[in-house]
Amino acid sequence: MTTEAETLARTVLSVENLSAWYAESKVLHGISFDVREGELLTLIGRNGAGKTTTLRSIMGIVKKRTGSITFNGDQLIGRRIYEIARKGIGYCPEERAIFSSLSVKENLTLPPVLQSGGMGDEELLEAFPNLRSRASSQGTKLSGGEQQMLAIARILRTGSRFLLLDEPSEGLAPVVVKEIGELILRLKARGFTIILVEQNLRFAKRVADRHVVVENGKVVDILSAAQLDSDMERVQSYLGV
Amino acid sequence: MFDAISPQLIFGQLLIGLINGSFYAMLSMGLAIIFGLMHVVNFAHGAQYMLGAFVTWVLLNYLGIPYWPSLVLAPVIVAVLGMVMERTILRPLQNLDHLYGLLATYAVALIVEGLIRQQYGSSGLPYSSPIPGGVNLGFMFLPYYRLWVVLFSIVTCIGSWLLIEHTKLGAYLRAANEKPDIVETFGINVPRMVTLTYGFGVGLAALSGVLAAPIYQVSPSMGSSIMIVIFAVVVIGGMGSIIGAVATGYMLGLVEALTKIVYPEAANVVIFLFMILALLVRPNGLFSGAEKTR
Amino acid sequence: MMTRILLLGVLAVLLIAAPFFAYPVTLMTILCFVIFACSFNLLLGYTGLLCFGHAMFFGSAAYVTGYLLKTTGLSLELALLGGAGATALLGLFVGLIALRRSGIQFAMITFAIAQFVYFLLLRAPFTGGEDGMQSIPRSALFGVFDISSSFTFYYVVLGITVLSVWFFYRIVHSPFGEVLKAIRDNDQRVESLGFKPERFKLVAFVLSAALAGLAGGLKATVFQFATLTDVSFPISSEVILMTLLGGLGTLSGPIVGAGIIILLNDYLADFGEWALIAQGVILLLVIMFFRRGVVGELDRVLRKIRARRAS
Question: Which residues on adjacent β-strands are paired with residue A11?
């Protein structure tokens, strides 16, 4: 079933031969992969493999990069961060980046509406009831799980249909991880296209269509969900578990 | 010695303290706003304050434009110059050590002050008060213009504070102070925001300059001499803290005035003594509280 | 290596012959500022500390040395040491306060304290206030050698300058200097290695203050007067410009920078404000386009040429 969808769906994002640098040290060495419309793709690999850098390069936060990143046919390399965001890409960073000088409400409503189709403030508060009761408290006073929910919720406001989520499950209790997993599945069901960076293989397995394995700044394997199931050993060897 | 001090002297000095404090507060606030977002100490702040006063003088003497329109025009003109400076000088330096930003703005201050001095000489130019006269309160004479300056600066400070703490625009600024890249990933044009914020801070400096023109002489050195105090104010108040800057500004104006009453010889140095004391007692700034220090 | 010795030889001949061709006072001014710029370079170039009020050391020492010469009859070298010692103490005091903050705030605090020192000296009874301290005698060197003529005195100043630059060179190339450079590049890493960066910064600051004091005292004996100008901000600003223009963190950079700026000031002395405007423009250009400074840029060009020849 997945394979049929794969062949039919249009390619939204195409990364070709992407290299990236932090100051003088090269972190990515020619990454290539495609993301199709409505797909949920994970980037998996060890710490320091280059997953986060890949997301940051797509978003333009890492400025020194070569190769090609096209989104709906537009070249992203050479564009500034806000220009990339305005094309319809939402980014939720690993550290969640909740603003301590802003209230929960201000954090949630900070991102502007860039495209129609984003969720309204009411809709968001309904979807994330915890945030409503804490609306006026300081953003960073929320629990880790709540901060993660807030970080995802606020980018849904912009109307972006393409999301980059960096390790949303990291450091959270199993119950909360489950909640986040359900949220991501709901988003997928609503037609969002998502790149998810994950180290938690069980979590990734539950939600993703395909897995891109990154090692030392290169793509070493691309697996479908079915392959991941049948060949866990191979994957575990990549992750070194 | 206290019986020798007349109430006229005390209230007169306190009024001067309040006036000076108003300028310290407005200038420090602009400096703190700029520092918060850009992490650059805008050494040109004094020169921009001086330019505000000079543009006001030039508008009146060459174009016949009086004080009230200048109150808007001069800050806008100087702010535009500031924004050009941000784009051409500060932006290329933004990824380097912020000391370069400090030195570059200092160089600009040196050039601007030198050019003005070359053109208009070192002695001050007079600018007559737009609200002449005053009221005798019995214990002192209160010129209307000074009352206007005090009230206007208080309103400006409160207004700017409300803008930053309680509006959407302010939320963008606060968020960008913390994590500019993340704010930009929401599709917000942060580079333009930096330019506009610098323009706002510079505009505040020029606005203070317009207010100062009828009180002090319009002179090339008015900026560099006040900068010394402003530096002390923001160090004491905690860098980038807007409330700290404003509160410290007014406080130091009054402290200076009180010193003039009690021990006039120390009036010039009391602010620096205060700074040294504050550094020894509260190394992170009097108002640094929960804010991060850099 | 051979070219280096040759270059040093040529330089030595030039320095020794210079007063036969140029006005000795101008030459001595340059030499005083060479020492002053070295002291500043030790801080900004090698420790990463921007002192925005270095004139407080230069000027205070000018007064102290002058006062010693005028009132005590000490010989020249002792008066100079007295001035440098006094500013070392001042440096210790200022360092203890200003080093509580780093980076830009350190710069602002030194700026404010320098103003404080300025006001104190304006008020102090022995400085002569606005008029300055006049007719400072050039007491005999070691109590023996007569140095009243500027021509002979030039060689004394030259000797002291060479010694100071050598001293600076030794500091920078000592293990202590290596730690300073490491602090400049990454002080957290230095801390994690078990060093206390604050202590090293303080020692560097005191050394720099003493060296700046030596320069100031020497200047007071060259001109035979000390004024408030010596402690004023323009002097602090000039030394920043000299160091950046010559080349931050290079040995010879500040020497070149001091020469250029003093000659430029001399040349523009009759053009009113244009000397300061020129300084501003040069500073801005250096910051925007030539952050390596004259020596740094020359070095880069030479390296490129050599690399091209080698390949």
Answer: A36
Beta bridge partners of A75: A70
Average of per-residue pLDDT values in chain B? 90
Residue with tokens 């007559």, as numbered in its chain: B128
DSSP state for residue A119 in the 8-state scheme? P
Helix axes C150-172, C197-223, angle to 10 degrees: 170
Q: What is the CA radius of gyration of chain B?
A: 19
- CA B293 to chain A, closest CA, distance in angstroms equals 14
Q: Nearest CA to CA, how far is B270 from chain C (Å)?
A: 9
Q: Which of A91-105, B27-41, B52-66, C263-277 has the lowest mean pLDDT?
A: C263-277
Name beta bridge partners: A40. A194
Q: Are B245 and B234 in contact (CB under 8 A)?
A: yes
Chain A CB contacts of B96 under 8 Å are: none
For C50-65, the DSSP string reads --TTTHHHHHHHHHHH
CB–CB of B155/A124 below 8 Å? no
| Structural contact between residues C37 and C242, judged by C-beta atoms closer than 8 angstroms | yes
Owner of token pair 């050391």 = C57
Put simply, whether B264 touches C (Cβ < 8 Å) is no
> Is the pLDDT confidence value at B293 over 60?
no
Q: For C133-161, how does the pLDDT look when each residue is reduced to its tens digit (9 = 90+)? A: 887 777 666 766 777 777 888 888 899 99
- Return d(Cα B113, Cα B122) in angstroms, integer: 10
Which residues of chain B does A151 touch, with a Cβ-Cβ cutoff of 8 Å?
none
**C-alpha to C-alpha distance for C57 and B276, rounded to whole angstroms:** 18
Burial zone of C109 (CB within 10 Å; 0-12 exposed, 13-18 middle, 19+ buried):
buried
The CA distance from B191 to the nearest CA of chain A, in Å, is 9
Rounded to an integer, what distance in angstroms lies between the CA atom of residue C157 and that of residue C219? 9
Distance between CA atoms of B56 and B212, rounded to whole angstroms? 10
* Of A59, A99, A100, Cβ closest to residue B185: A59
SS3 content of chain C, % helix, strand, coil (to 5): 75, 0, 20
Architecture of domain A36-60+88-239: 3-Layer(aba) Sandwich (3.40)
Say how many C-beta atoms besides its own lie within 10 A of residue B187's C-beta: 25
* For residue B202, pLDDT beyond 90: yes
- Are chains C and A in contact at 3+ CB pairs closer than 8 Å? no
For residue C78, the Cα-to-chain-centroid distance in whole angstroms is: 20
Nearest to B228 among C112, C272, C277 (CB): C112
CATH number given to B2-121+141-281? 1.10.3470
Matching residue, tokens 């016949």: B64
Q: Evaluate whether A6 touches A36 at the Cβ level (below 8 Å).
A: yes
Contact B294 C103 (CB under 8 A): yes
Give CA–CA dist B229/B271, Å, rounded.
Answer: 7
Q: For chain B, what are the domain ranges?
A: 2-121+141-281
Beta strands in B60-219 (DSSP E): 134-136, 141-143
Q: Which residues of B touch A114 (CB under 8 A)?
A: 187
Check pLDDT > 70 for residue A7: no
HSE-CB of C286 using CA atoms within 13 angstroms: 27
Angle at which helix C24-44 crosses helix C2-21, to 10 degrees, equals 140
Tokens 């001069």, residue located: B74
d(C-alpha B110, C-alpha B169), whole Å:
33
Q: Reduced to 3 DSSP states, what percent helix, strand and coil does chain A have, rounded to the nearest 5?
A: 40, 30, 35
Measured CA to CA, the distance from residue B19 to residue A46 in angstroms comes to 62
